[in-house]
Write a structure and sequence with these properties.
The complex is a heterodimer of chains A (about 350) and B (about 375). Chain A has about 350 residues and is α/β, with parallel strands linked by helices. Chain A is about 30% helix and about 25% strand. In chain A, strand 11 and strand 12 form a beta hairpin. Chain B is an alpha/beta fold. The longest helix of chain B is centred in the middle third of the chain and has 18 residues. The chains are: A alpha/beta (about 350), B alpha/beta (about 375). Bound molecules: adenosine-5'-triphosphate (2 copies), iron/sulfur cluster (SF4) (2 copies) and magnesium ion (2 copies). Chain B: This is ABC transporter ATP-binding protein.
Chain lengths: ~350, ~375
């Protein structure tokens, strides 16, 4: 494995819950509650889990778009060595920011409709005084070409573009300052199936060419399997399992991961599964249950699960699980979906 | 424009026949056309859509964003956003021994209002669009029951709790007294389904009801819909982006592209013997668990054209790897039969042995 680019330890982000007439602090939402993760140079780490489990908050706290409540976020700067982002001052942050970028879910909301596409892509270069004049124009043209758009698109406005094209513009903008890491928060979730494929391919192609690393936040487990090298599964602010993508998908070691994989609808009517459904809702991070947070919904729960929180421990090479019975449970991986028959269209294409 | 004569031909043919080999459809749509006049020109949202919804089955509708799935659903209920309007075609609702031609009813007529909710119910992607934030869930369902079923308030409330229990809502009594904002996304979606089912509609139209939900919650909702179909024989029109959901839930599938139906068949035909190049490409572009991670996904080159431009000939020809020059870019392909209940609009299949092209439809 290549050297670590980002090392996160014990990351916490708690939001106050205010209540009553005086808006006093009456509790805490532990949105992110002790997350450890490492992203190596050039790899893709996926962050998965149900809505509200803290994926976006983790991404935002890592990039210091939100000040972490506790924990360490160390970015290994290619020249200056390790930088502690959680405590970095404004000047250090400004110097580091170009290396860390983010792409969001909604390509419609995240582009300023009054700016031309060229202006949008050039903005980070202008703000950071990275290029001016002809050099700036050339760089914008290069970036647009890199993401599969045309240089002449620079003069148009975002409304004239489709969802997939707008997401390409967002990616071009994120690439402007030669980042090392891009946090993709549901970057393909709002896109059409066929457009999703284009953007996933683009992200992989850019990774190969530019050595980028991605923190790929998504609830689409099929897309994650396709793009990720390692997968981190979160539940109510905590990591319940993490490991290499093949191991997570074929031999999960946490009942929550098993349940998530079983719920993925397979695109094959001949493989109709009626998954054992998870009952109940995700608990609120303001009042999680005692013991293992998953115990009220876990089909394998034992009495100890209601009282003792399981520790995260190693269950294999680079594979971690936080379940009391990680070694004993016979958990099933995802069913592999059959490829569709080869079509003349496909043969003509390849 | 070369497209116009092909379209006129298509209308005449489609009106005359029954396209699907469903003996007993609950709803028949024939050559439906919907237009939106906009400052930039007229958008032809539906350009002659013909299909049947089989009784007691789940019909899936898939296709790229903007291809007309929601407009089709809204046309059936006559709730198309102004200034959009139906400019051609018919929609017929078929009861056991009655027939109602929806396209002849005024959108605000008493008959149309009675039909909505009671005979055809609809659920949307965002439950908050159908739930009223200032009334409790129980009151909202009871109101729907009072409107169509009983005049007794107490009975209506009991029925509301009963329906919530039927959709698998935990603690139905407590949920009945809750307001929408007090529920999680999945519970709100269940509440909306409960409301839609409260009057035992014969047809449920679901427009991406699970797109915003987690896979775990989605699986629960799909199970719920299967369960209601099996118990009450309700017919379902299910619009979705997810090929996985289609494969797991639907009996039959319609594939749309740019305001037209390009292929229709049983779910097995569509996934294992797709005929239309767009359907084939769509299926090959989705990431699959267990697939070869080193191989890039297959993509459909290009993008859907701007809705204001009319594409002559086959709407897919600018992106189709198999397009036949001089043919695909001039004439809209007629409907060919690929097998029982399996039809396709593509010039590659014009002379399929099993099928025939409708005379006139191909102009
Ligand atoms: N600014 C905030 N103030 C209070 N609570 C917040 C804030 N931001 C997030 N939360 C809460 O923190 C928890 C985690 O939210 P987060 O957005 O990180 O989840 P997520 O995993 O990204 O979910 P989704 O898949 O829906 O995007 C949720 O319970 C959310 O309500
Ligand atoms: N209110 C409107 N005004 C103008 N055009 C409209 C309006 N509503 C829909 N359209 C047009 O009608 C066409 C079909 O739209 P529709 O909403 O049915 O697409 P869809 O298949 O449901 O897409 P999605 O998957 O994004 O929901 C599109 O070209 C759209 O631009
Ligand atoms: S610790 Fe217990 S409740 Fe938690 S996942 Fe493991 S078996 Fe289930
Ligand atoms: S009619 Fe022609 S362009 Fe259209 S899908 Fe068939 S081969 Fe492709
Ligand atoms: Mg999020
Ligand atoms: Mg729609």
């Amino acid at each position: 494995m290549s050297e670590p680019l980002l090392e996160v330890t014990g990351l916490r982000k708690h939001f106050p819950v205010r209540g009553g007439f005086l808006r006093r602090r009456v509790g805490e939402i532990k949105a992110v509650d002790g997350v450890d993760l490492t992203v190596h140079r050039g790899e893709t780490v996926a962050l998965v889990g149900e809505s509200g489990c803290g994926k976006s908050t983790t991404g935002r706290a890592i990039l210091r778009l939100e000040a972490p409540t506790a924990g360490e976020v160390v970015f290994h700067h290619p020249e200056h060595g390790p930088v502690h982002l959680e405590s970095a001052d404004a000047r250090t942050l400004r110097a580091v920011r170009p290396h860390l970028q983010m792409v969001f879910q909604d390509p419609f909301a995240s582009l300023d409709s009054r700016m031309t596409v060229g202006g949008i892509v050039a903005e980070p270069l202008v703000i950071n005084k990275a290029a001016t004049g002809q050099e700036l124009k050339d760089r914008v043209a290069e970036l647009l070409t890199l993401v599969g758009l045309r240089p002449e698109h620079a003069n148009r406005y975002p409304h004239a573009f489709s969802g997939g094209q707008r997401q390409r513009i967002c990616i071009a903008r994120a690439l402007a300052l030669d980042p090392d890491l891009i946090v993709c928060d549901e970057a393909v979730s709002a896109l059409d199936v066929s457009v999703q494929a284009q953007i996933l391919n683009l992200l992989e192609d850019l990774q190969r060419r530019l050595g980028l690393a991605y923190l790929f936040i998504s609830h689409d487990l099929a897309a994650v399997e396709h793009i990720a090298d390692r997968v981190v599964v979160m539940y109510v602010g905590k990591i319940v399992e993490s490991g290499p993508v093949e191991q997570i998908y074929t031999a999960p070691r946490h009942p929550y991961t098993e349940a998530l994989l079983a719920a993925v609808p397979q695109p094959d009517p001949r493989v109709r599964t009626r998954p054992k459904l998870l009952t109940g809702d995700v608990p609120s991070p303001a009042s999680p249950p005692g013991g293992c947070y998953f115990h009220p919904r876990c089909p394998h729960a034992q009495p100890v699960c209601a009282t003792e929180a399981p520790e995260v421990r190693s269950v294999g090479d680079g594979h971690l699980s936080a379940c009391h019975f990680a070694d004993a449970l016979p958990l099933a991986g995802a069913t592999a979906a059959a490829r569709p028959p080869a079509t003349p269209a496909a043969q003509a294409n390849s | 424009m070369s497209q116009s004569y092909a379209e006129e031909g298509a209308s005449a043919a489609a009106l005359a026949d029954t396209p699907d080999e469903t003996a007993d459809p609950v709803l028949s749509v024939r050559d439906l056309e919907v237009e939106f006049p906009t400052p930039l020109g007229v958008v032809g949202a539906l350009n002659g859509v013909t299909f049947d919804v089989p009784r007691g089955k789940v019909l899936g509708i898939v296709g790229e964003s903007g291809c007309g799935k929601s407009v089709t659903a809204r046309a059936i209920l006559q709730i198309i956003e102004k200034p959009g309007r139906i400019t051609g075609g018919t929609i017929t609702l078929r009861g056991q021994d009655t027939q109602t031609e929806i396209t002849k009813l005024g959108p605000d007529s008493a008959r149309m209002r009675a039909l909505r909710g009671r005979e055809i119910a609809m659920i949307f992607q965002e439950p908050m669009r159908s739930l009223n934030p200032v009334h409790t869930i129980g009151a909202q369902i009871a109101e729907a029951v009072l409107l169509h079923q009983t005049r007794d308030r107490k009975q209506a409330h009991e029925r509301a709790v009963e329906i919530l229990r039927q959709v698998g809502m935990p603690h139905p009594e407590a949920v009945a007294t809750s307001y929408p904002h007090q529920l999680s996304g999945g519970m709100r979606q269940r509440a909306m389904i409960a409301m839609a089912l409260s009057c035992n509609p014969g047809l449920l139209i679901a427009d991406e009801p699970t797109t915003a939900l987690d896979v775990t919650t989605e699986a629960q909702i799909l199970e719920l819909i299967r369960d209601v179909r099996d118990r009450s024989g309700m017919s379902v029109m299910f619009i979705t982006h997810s090929m996985g959901v289609v494969a797991q839930l639907c009996d039959e599938v319609i594939v749309m592209y740019l305001g037209r139906i390009v292929e229709r068949g049983s779910v097995d035909d569509l996934f294992h013997d797709p005929k239309h190049p767009y359907t084939q490409a769509l299926l090959r572009s989705i990431p699959r668990i267990g697939g070869d991670r080193k191989v890039p996904l297959e993509v459909i080159e290009g993008s859907v054209p701007d809705p204001h431009t009319r594409v002559a000939g086959c709407p897919f020809h600018p992106r189709c790897p198999q397009a036949i020059p001089g043919r695909c870019d001039t004439a809209f392909p007629g409907r060919s039969t690929a097998g029982p209940g399996h039809t396709v609009h593509c010039h590659l299949h014009d002379d399929d042995a099993a099928g025939h092209t409708e005379p006139g439809e191909d102009a």
